[in-house]
Amino acid sequence: MWPGGKEVELSREGKMSVRNNDSQQSMARRTLLKAAPAALLTAAGARQLLGAVTNDTITDGGEASYTEASEKATVKALDWLKKTQNNDGGCGVDIGQVSDIGTTATVGLALMANGITPIEGKRASMLREISRFLMRQTDNMPANDITNATGTQLQNKIGRHAHSFFAALFFSQILGQGENPEPLKNALSRVINAIVRAQDARGDWGSQSWAPVLGTVMGWVSLRAADSVGLTVGAAPAKTAEHLIETMRSSLNEGGWMHTLYKNATGIRVLYSMEMDDDPVAKKAFEDVLALVNRDNTPFTQAGGEEFLAFHLITETMLKKGGDDWNKWFPVVRDKLIDVQNSDGSWTGHHCITSRTFCTAAAILVLTSPYRFLPISQA
Question: Of 131, 134, 355, 362, which residue has the fewest beta carbons closer than 10 angstroms?
Answer without folding.
Answer: 131
